[in-house]
Description:
mainly beta; 4-stranded antiparallel sheet; 3-stranded antiparallel sheet; 7 strands
Amino acid sequence: xxxxxxxxxxxxxxxxxxxxxxxxxxxxxxxxxxxxxxxxxxxxxxxxxxxxxxxxxxxxxxxxxxxxxxxxxxxxxxxxxxxxxxxxxxxxxxx
Length: 95
């Protein structure tokens, strides 16, 4: 067993899913802030919102429930911050 660390500035993390490549997704919590993270071996832990294209950053994430072997992440969140409606999402890795 090993620690995955934390997203900078966050207080706690929960792991939700892992794929065959050791990539992990979960929820990260801070002072009045909740988002989701992705951990990639050799890259460490990142807030998913920071990995999104500029036009997609208006999401407020609730959770990430799975990551497949292609790095696609599914979960739920609100569009337009917390002012929007709750939706399921899929975020696909683009290299």
